[in-house]
């Protein structure tokens, strides 16, 4: 099982990294953004396995992006590894602060409380004119352990970075999902009270899932900020979080690769509808969402499950 | 003292408008168990429809009797409910009853996205102004402060809406049937209640209230695209604070949100954009299911 996982991770890494050579510039940027957002969505999927969905994951996406930007602009740090680490650390601490609180909430209340937290960040950032207000801030291109590429090599390096992080995060989350706590999360989804009677702490499980989601959100936000070169409070707006939730629902909680595939699909649908129906791309996106929800209520991951089931 | 009075009056005006929108949202959630993001679109469509109707009214010689424009406002909301209510409920939402709450939120999010662009296709992207109904009622003087009479009409409308909804639910036969369906839709069906019709009726009533909120707001603002995005999330905060499905809760929630927002505008403008969510977070801290929610037994 473990060796299978490692082999698939290596295959995925090589296959995706090959994109750095094959893909045209626009597609590489699109994939990099999609994978960065996929990381955030992976965190939501981790919570979804326990039956709760955060409608405020934009909080960590935005927090990570702003942490990286402020550190880069004020302390002159441009190393991508260090920036990612610092953002993840900040999100870890904030996640640890809010996690125990949110772990008491379920269903729509969990969704709304997480949404409220992200909207508080959105509102605060919009009014803070000394860090750009609603205009946001620019962030310079990152360096990679002292190497400062430009143009296509920069894009390729950023792409390979996000691919590597995504594969590592996906593998670690898979291991976590199959661990004792990960399986108890699934049990919580079915029946919380039974899990408690079995002697496990549901609050503890939920807190862990939330904190992992926070860290993944921060990493995703950092990479998105570096890819875009710009951050603004919209990162924490509810429509941004809504998209993350959509990707998570599209993927379903059964499969990790499905999360990244869904993120890429959404990004492709958005770009192409933007290109071909510039005035009605929201309409196209909405119809696409409805079609997916109707056709695949358990997400893309359920296709894999179905396929495996047929084989057996 | 003046400041306190200003905050109170401003807060009440904001709360009145917000209550009309929120009570529709809470009604739809109470009966259909769907938290409807598209409620924001219905609000915006109500605003556009009333701008068009009132514009048409004055264009076709309404100046002779300007008060008729108020009828046009309400008619706009009725039209929105009659057209979009059945279309959304029968055409889409009924296939999702009993499904996961969050999935349903996403379904209505998709509808919200679709309607955003449909509005742009119908009404374009330029702003609409219908100021006539706003100025008709003159000014009101409270101590040293002047207010536009229309603002108070909105508060009155909110009180009427609240009373009508509450009385209908608690003191009429229709209301009893609706409460029975909320309590146990399967049992109601076996007792001969046409549950489908109750769902449709409740959704249309919710759509009407959303559109009415929009229609009444249209004269106070310029009607532009993107109107629904902020409204829906504030209305969410109101119904969550009050407790989902509770009408007194929506009233208290609207008052808390309205007054705290007015207070922050006057005392701490930096907090204006997030004070609502801050209040919501505080309420949820102490009452995890909102102020007026019924506690439910946990199932083993």
Molecular structure report:
The complex is a heterodimer of chains A (312) and B (300). Chain A has 312 residues and is mostly helical. Chain A has one domain (2-311): ABC transporter involved in vitamin B12 uptake, BtuC, CATH 1.10.3470. Chain A is built from 14 helices and two strands; from the N terminus they run ααααααβααααβαααα. In chain A, α4 (58-75) runs antiparallel to α5, α4 (58-75) packs parallel to α6 and α11 (238-251) packs across α12 (257-276). The longest helix of chain A has 27 residues, at 151-177. Chain A is globular and about 55 Å long. The model of chain A has no long low-confidence stretch (mean pLDDT 89). In chain B, α1 packs across α10, α2 (39-59) runs parallel beside α4 (101-123) and α6 crosses α7. The model of chain B has no long low-confidence stretch (mean pLDDT 88). Chain B has a single domain, classed as ABC transporter involved in vitamin B12 uptake, BtuC (Orthogonal Bundle), CATH 1.10.3470. Chain B has a two-stranded antiparallel ribbon with strand order 1-2. Chain B has helices at residues 2-32, 39-59, 68-91, 101-123, 132-136, 149-171, 173-183, 185-190, 195-217, 227-242, 247-267, 275-286; strands at residues 139-142, 145-148. Chain B is built from twelve helices and two strands. The chains are: A mainly alpha (312), B mainly alpha (300). Chains A and B meet through α6, α9, α11 and α13 of A and α4, α10 and α12 of B.
């Amino acid at each position: 099982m473990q060796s299978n996982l490692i082999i698939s991770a290596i295959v995925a890494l090589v296959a995706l990294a090959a994109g750095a050579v094959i893909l045209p510039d626009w597609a590489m940027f699109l994939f990099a953004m999609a994978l960065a957002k996929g990381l955030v969505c992976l965190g939501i999927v981790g919570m979804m396995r326990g039956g709760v969905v955060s409608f405020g994951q934009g909080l960590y996406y935005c927090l990570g992006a702003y942490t990286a930007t402020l550190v880069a602009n004020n302390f002159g740090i441009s190393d991508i590894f260090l920036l990612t680490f610092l953002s993840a650390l900040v999100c870890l601490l904030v996640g640890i602060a809010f996690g125990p609180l949110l772990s008491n909430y379920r269903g729509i209340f969990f969704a709304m409380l997480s949404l409220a937290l992200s909207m508080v960040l959105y509102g605060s950032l919009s009014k803070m004119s000394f860090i750009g207000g609603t205009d946001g801030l620019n962030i310079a291109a990152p360096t990679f352990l002292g190497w400062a590429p430009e143009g296509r090599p920069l894009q390729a390096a950023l792409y390979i970075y996000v691919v590597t992080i995504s594969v590592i995060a996906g593998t670690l989350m898979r291991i976590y999902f199959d661990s004792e706590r990960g399986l108890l999360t699934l049990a919580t989804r079915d029946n919380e009270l039974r899990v408690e009677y079995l002697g496990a702490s549901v609050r503890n499980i939920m807190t862990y899932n939330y904190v992992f989601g926070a860290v993944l959100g921060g990493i995703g936000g950092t990479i998105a900020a570096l890819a875009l070169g710009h951050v603004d409070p919209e990162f924490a707006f509810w429509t941004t979080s809504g998209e993350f939730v959509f990707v998570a629902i599209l993927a379903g909680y059964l499969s990790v690769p499905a999360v990244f595939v869904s993120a890429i699909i959404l990004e492709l649908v958005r770009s192409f509808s933007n290109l071909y129906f510039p005035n009605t791309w929201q309409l196209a996106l909405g119809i696409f969402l409805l079609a997916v929800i109707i056709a695949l209520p358990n997400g893309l991951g359920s296709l894999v499950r179905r396929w495996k089931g047929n084989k057996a | 003292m003046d400041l306190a009075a200003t905050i109170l009056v401003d807060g009440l005006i904001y709360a009145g408008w917000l209550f009309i929108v929120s009570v529709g949202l809470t009604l739809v959630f109470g009966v259909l168990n769907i938290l409807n993001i598209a409620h924001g679109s219905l609000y915006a469509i109500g605003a556009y429809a009333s701008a068009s109707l009132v514009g048409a009214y004055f264009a076709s010689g309404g100046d002779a009797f300007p008060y008729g424009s108020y009828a046009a406002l309400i008619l706009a909301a009725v039209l929105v409910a009659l057209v979009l209510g059945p279309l959304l409920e029968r055409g889409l939402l009924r296939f999702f009853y009993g499904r996961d709450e969050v999935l349903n939120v996403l379904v209505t999010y998709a509808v919200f996205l679709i309607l955003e662009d449909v509005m742009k296709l119908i009404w374009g992207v330029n702003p609409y102004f219908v100021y006539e109904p706003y100025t008709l009622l003159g000014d009101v003087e409270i101590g040293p402060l002047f207010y536009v009479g229309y603002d108070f009409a909105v508060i009155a409308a909110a009180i009427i809406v609240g009373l009508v909804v509450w009385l209908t639910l608690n003191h009429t036969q229709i209301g009893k049937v609706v409460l029975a369906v909320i309590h146990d839709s399967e049992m109601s069906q076996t007792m001969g209640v046409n549950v489908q019709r109750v769902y449709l009726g409740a959704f249309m009533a919710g759509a009407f209230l959303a559109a009415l909120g929009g229609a009444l707001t249209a004269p106070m603002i310029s009607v532009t695209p993107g109107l629904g995005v902020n409204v829906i999330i504030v209305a969410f905060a109101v119904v969550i604070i009050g407790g989902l499905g509770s009408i007194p809760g929506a009233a208290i929630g609207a008052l808390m949100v309205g007054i705290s927002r007015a207070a922050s505008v006057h005392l701490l403008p930096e907090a204006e954009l997030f004070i609502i969510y801050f209040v919501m977070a505080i309420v949820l801290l102490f009452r995890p299911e909102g102020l007026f929610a019924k506690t439910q037994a946990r199932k083993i």
